[in-house]
Each structure stands twice: as structure tokens, then as C-alpha cells.
Write a structure and sequence with these properties.
Strand content: 15-25%
Helix content: 25-40%
Radius of gyration: 21 Å
Largest sheet: 5 strands, antiparallel
Distance between the termini: 52 Å
Strand order of the largest sheet: 1-2-3-5-4
Number of helices: 10
CATH class of the largest domain: Alpha Beta
CATH superfamily of the largest domain: Aminoglycoside phosphotransferase (APH), C-terminal lobe
Low-confidence stretches: none
Shape: globular
Structural class: alpha+beta
CATH architecture of the largest domain: Alpha-Beta Complex
CATH topology of the largest domain: Aminoglycoside 3'-phosphotransferase, Chain: A, domain 2
Number of strands: 12
Order of helices and strands: HEEEHEEEHHEEEEHHHHEEHH
Amino acid sequence: MALDPAVLGLAAARYGLAPQALHPLHGGNFSHVYGFTRDGAASVLRITPPNADVDAADMRAILAWVQVLDAHGAPVAGPVLSVAGRLVETLDHATGCYLVTAVKQARGQLAETLPYDRWSDALFQAWGRAAGRMHAIAQAHAPTDPVLRLPEWDQTGNCFNEPFPAALAGTPIARHLAQVRAHLATLPRDPSAYGVIHADFHAANFFVDPETATLTVFDFDDCAQGWYAMDIAMALFDVLVVYPRPDRTAFAAHFLTHYLAGYLREKPLDAFWAAELPHFLKLLEINIYGQVYHDHDPADTTSWVGKFLGPYDGGTHDRQRRIERGEPYVDLDFARTLETARP
């Protein structure tokens, strides 16, 4: 839906801009996204229409956390304050309340658009190092203001906590989901392993300069309190979906070794948590399967979803069979991989 010019004008004014200083950008799901330059710095303005699922306080807490990350050297697209010094501006309109935010423009290209032949060990290490840096900051600088406290991972929507389809109730897939969630409920939540995570740190949510392997992380909309290992699992989960060759296990070991080598430069990782990665991977696998299986066209084998679901035969996706049989997402010795990654 086109944005009312009056709303655009109000949003621009909150950042000291004329409407014509904004140029539309691709990438917004339901928000309107614009690029602009202020004080010589390229930035991105996001105007979110009235939506019951978007709360100004939650958005403010998320951006406050990104501001902390930015201030402590994490490679993130830091917030840009409005003229009034606010992280989030609210615009009252006849149709409801619009939320306006701005962040620094990320450099490079979206990581998921990088061809396989340009993947590199340096990129994998930078990816892991970015996660390790964010987790180290989370452990040392977690928000203490109750207003800024982010929700627990299982109290908000994210890939680890998607609504499970009623159509799958009572199936082997539902039983496997119950088992993995029951296991996670037994895990410790000490500050060295549990804190603020991105919760969606895959290749569609960071830009990369492939020449320098420099990352800029964005889209913290799902960030929450969770186990740091969840972000590690997300990276491995995503990269194995798009990996174009059949030697997935060998590649998983190679990728994770370099990812963890980067991670360990910023934050320690106990072997206990490396051994828990299969459970976080299984949680992702089942949750995402539950979200995409029903509406997917079996003839589509090239999209991310098509690759994730796998071959389709006789009404059953390969992914469905693997989950029902209780197969691991990837058959890897995670503790050994961690030891290989240690300096």
C-alpha cells in the first residue's frame, strides 16, 4: 500500500529532512523503507504502519540494545537519532499510529546474494566473530532498566518459537518438537551462556564486503533473551540450506570450524554448549518446517524454502521424512569441531 504523502512529510521532518531528500529502498516487509543522507552519513529510514504486532516500547528497547552494541564496537547498523534525540518517533494519523526509526546504512552487499564461489574462510570467521562480539557485549552490558529488558526467546515470535500448526498436532513431528522443548527447559541459564541474542542472525540479515570480509549486522526485530548457542545454530542451519553441493556434513564441519575460530576470538565457548547445538538445530528445523510446508509449491526446488524442504515424492517432502525419523539436522561431532577451532 502506498504511503500517505502527509505521513512521509511528518516522518522526514522528525529527522530534519525534506520529503524529497528520501528515496525509496527495497527490502521492507510491511514497512516503508527510504534512504537518506544527513551530515554526510548514509542512513535508512523505516516507517512502520499501524500494526497490532508492532509495539513502540518493544521497538525502543530493541534499538536501545543495538545502540549499546554499536557503542561497544559490534559490527552493527547503529541507530540514528531523530532531531529530538529519540530512537523511535510516533506519528498519529487518521489510520493509526506510525512508528519511525532510522539506522546507519550498511556497506557492501546482502550476504545471501553472495555467489558460492565467493564464500571464504575469512567470511565464515568474520561471521562467527560478529556473533561472539555481540554475545560478549551482552554478557558484560546487559540492560538493567526494566523498560529496556527484552523478552525471553519463548515469550515472543522468532524462528525458535513459531506458532505450531494445528494440522500437525499428534504427529511424530509434534512429538519431536515436544521432546526438544522439554530438553531445552532443563538447560542452565547462567549469564555466560544466556543473554541477549540476535535470534535471526542468518545471511539475509547482514551485509558483507567480500573483499575485506567486513560485516554489518541489521534487523534486530527478533532479538530476545536466549542461549548464545542459538545464534550459532542459526548460522549453521541457514548456510546448510543454501550450500549447493552434496557433501553437506564435510562442509558443515569446515564452516563451523572457521565460524567458531572467529567466535572464540571474542568470547569463550564451553564444550557443553557445542554439544547442545543439535537440539537448537532441531528446534529450528521443526519450527520452520511447520511454517512453510503447507503453502509450498512442490515444483519449486530453487528458492530457500524449496531447498529446505527437499525432494517431494508421493505427497511427502524429504524434510518431513527426516524429522519423522528423528534424524539429526546434520550428523556432526560438534564438540570435536569446537576443539579443532580452538587456537
